[in-house]
Amino acid sequence: MPLQIKELYVKVTVSADEEQGSSKQGANTASESSGDSVMNKDEIIAECVEQVIEILKEKMEP
Question: How far apart are CA 14 and CA 43, in angstroms?
């Protein structure tokens, strides 16, 4: 029986630091150069989208 996904929730947390949960995390985000930060986020998003598309293609193949 085929399985149909009606909704898909994706939650991603991206951090430049190795430290997680520290108060420095918010400060680092604000102090980063917006150009570098945006480009890095765009690259990450593009890679994630490509991987999701590949997975969906594999699922659709008989």
Answer: 12
Tokens for 38?
């945006």
> Rounded to whole angstroms, how far apart are CA atoms 22 and 11?
20
For 27-42, write each residue's pLDDT tens digit: 455 555 566 677 788 8
Distances 52 to 18, 24, 29, 36, 37 between C-alpha atoms, Å? 25, 31, 26, 24, 23
The Cα–Cα gap between 27 and 42 comes to: 21
**Residue type present at position 39:** M
